[in-house]
Write a structure and sequence with these properties.
The complex is a heterotrimer of chains A (about 350), B (about 270) and C (about 270). Chain A is of the alpha/beta class and about 350 residues long. Chain A is about 35% helix and about 30% strand. In chain A, the strands form three sheets. Chain A has a six-stranded mixed beta sheet, with helices on both faces. Chain B starts with a helix and ends with a helix. Chain B has helices at about 5-20, 25-50, 50-60, 65-95, 95-100, 105-115, 115-130, 130-175, 185-190, 205-210, 215-225, 230-265. Chain B has one domain (about 5-265). By secondary structure, chain B is mainly α. Chain C has one domain. Chain C is built from eleven helices and no strands. Chain C has helices spanning about 5-20, 25-45, 55-80, 80-85, 90-95, 100-130, 140-165, 170-185, 195-205, 210-220, 230-260. In chain C, helix 3 runs antiparallel to helix 6 (about 100-130), helix 3 packs across helix 10 and helix 7 (about 140-165) packs antiparallel against helix 10 (about 210-220). The N and C termini of chain C lie far apart (about 40 Å). The chains are: A alpha/beta (about 350), B mainly alpha (about 270), C mainly alpha (about 270).
Amino acid sequence: MAPAIEAKNLVKNYVTWERKGFIKRTRKIVQALRGVSFTVEKGEVFGLLGPNGAGKTTTVKIITTLLLPDDGEARVLGYDVVSEAEKVREVIGVTLSVEKGFFWKLTGRENLKYFGMLRGLKGSYLNERIEYVLGLVGLKELGAADKLYEEYSLGMKARLALARALLHDPPVLILDEPTIGLDPASARTIRELLVKLARSGDKTVLITTHNMFEAELICDHVAIIDKGKIIAYGTVEELKRKAADRVSLELIVSIPKNMLNGLEEKIVALTGLREVALEAIESGRTRIRIVARPGEEEYVIEKMLEWLYSNNMKVHQVRIKEPSLEDVFIILTKGGSRGG
Amino acid sequence: MGVKSTDILRAGFFGMIAWLKNNRWLLFSMIIWPYLTAFLLIALGMIYGSFETYKERLNIANPILYILAGSGIVMSSLFIIDTVATNALYHRWLGTLPYLMLTPTKMYKVLVLEPLPGALLSSTMGILAVLPGAVYFEGLLGAGKLLIVLLLVYMGMLPLIGLSIIVASITLVLREESNVAAFLTPLILLVSSVFYPIDVLPKVLQYMSRIFPTSYIVEATRMVATYSIPEFRALFIVAYALLALTLFYNGVASIALSGSEKMVKKSGVI
Amino acid sequence: MTKNATRIHAIVWLHLLRLWRYKFSFLNNILTIILWLTIFVLGALMFIPKEQWSLMAPIALWGIIMWQFLSTSVWYIGGWTWFFVSQGFVEEHLLTNTSPAPVLVGRALVGLTITVSSSLLVALVFTGLTGPEVLLVDNILYVALGLVLLCTMTISYGLYLAALSFRIGIPGTLLDIANFVSFILGGLAVPLSKLPPQLRSIALIIPYAHPAEIVRYGVRGLEPYLGLETEILVSTIVALAMATIAYLLFKYILRHVRRYGVRAIGRM
């Protein structure tokens, strides 16, 4: 049985022009994908994670037939995304941007009707599907189905984008950052819906995100992409094991202002560990994060407490944290941000 | 403590330079447009009829120079209204309108001063573009006459800005995809009778022309084009009329804008 | 109904609904066009002795109407592409297996509505200036044939601009200049026989001049410069060629879009 989505060694380069001075422009090749491969099995929720500019959207655009790869191949339900693009488009539902791609002066329902008709849906079947998906994503409940799109909040726009993706009842959903910028309640609604659709057995969902919490919560498998390459692939638990050689220690401390200067260096010297981070939090407290190797944690905590008390600093909380997907992400992507 | 007017002007000036640097076609368009409109009118006129008829109908000495100057006025007025009136709408499209509104000063000041450097530059370019034509036809005297026209355009700019703010206020309230009051520009230019004597217009439009500043600029330009030495007394009358219109339009504009600001803030459509 | 018929239905429905929802913009557009045209028409009439107005008026009126077909195709198809691309509609339509070309051609409906409405009002202005005879037409069939051929050409031109805006920035000013120049050099405003010889040789190679000659024949029986049969033949061949090129160009540009991605460049 063919997997729902299969990408093999995808390569994509972009040509950009950089302005140098008033007239001169220089050509620059940007390697967006450098051999991306992964497989998404039917009925699962698959997360493609990566920092900004890592190649997530390029991968999605290739799989959704909107972009041709320079090399490699991709298939959706066995259909080739290059030579059988039309068939692929029939079996996928896509959201590319939650804020674009709708006509402002049309209502949510009218927008769905238009895009449904373009897919060849018509008559009572189209109307039934519109009613169904509007109800499914909660737009009917919010009383927004007959509001003009320009009056929609971001959460409503995201729901409508998902409704459009579901309108023709496709077996595969490919969603590019479907919860970006949404309030926690809207994001949760969409996440729950995606899981429900996948668990019901008839939908496969691929989402891209850089929200680790979301990925940990709903994805069966995840792949982490960075600089155009898949750098990790597996279940969430498998990936967490990649960080099993690390233990995160967290101390919440009240530190006098005059002690803050050079504190990081002092802790590095004291513990002999290099991954130390300070973060100011509420009520003038500071969170100290130290990454240690398993077995070292007790020694490090003891050493830290001794030093903190001897310098009259108040310790409010000490925690030993299991590695999260976010830890894995940060370790693997060396910081997790490209500023894009 | 509010923001100083000079700061807003400086920001507007910087924005305009950056915009021109990245849209070099705009500079070209400012220069080419007056010639293009003049060419269209002259070519059509010459094919359909003759210059002699035009000269007689408008009672002017040099029709080519007059049409060129007229095209300059048309373009300058268009640039001014467009720059100021469309500015607010443009900022809304870009999503930068809320940030303009967040400037710690009156919205009226921001919406007038921010596009002002652009309006000044484009209107100056609209007139100066025809300078080579003026020098070619009438030598230094032609250049001198054109500078008087430029001065008139600057004076006319003040009431036009007020009028443009009224237009901007309307567009801010209506949620349409384009400037729905854009028809006002050609309406103002139509009743100002740039290329034809005002008596060809129906009486009602002739009366209407008295409330628009461009009518006075056109009238003064015609004086400049008709007499070898412009009649300064008449020009002063024009100046007073423009001053009165400046006070009137800017007064109305400030009320209109504060009204639309309230409505926009109430409905949240910014 | 086949899938394609449902698609065409959707596109027509979309454009008409948007036209209604943007009614103030629509009215503003019509008014703006009429007012600008009136400024220039009144200016041009000042070159003609008043007793000859009724002779020249029909030629000028139909020149304006034909020019509007060109202008609205440029702005309502070519100019709209910028919005279409920047709002992500190219991708959204491709995902439904719909080429953006028919959606953009559908904008001709909006352009046509504006052209017809503003032409009626311009005709009213002319009637006021020169009398109702200006509206008389000798042979409506030739007028219709000329306009259909002209429309095919201008829509194709609008599509060229749309396709080009997927790849390069087209300065809006350049489009306006091309429109202006086409009015005279494209033989829309003036019969070819009335143009000075140098301008005429340029006008002869601009496609619009030929259907314009057919329209003028239908309006006042003015003998077309190349003869009626030749003008019909030339216009038909050119119109078909332009439409075929538009089709091929769009196919090519969509391949380009899939290879390099959609870049919102459009009108500058």
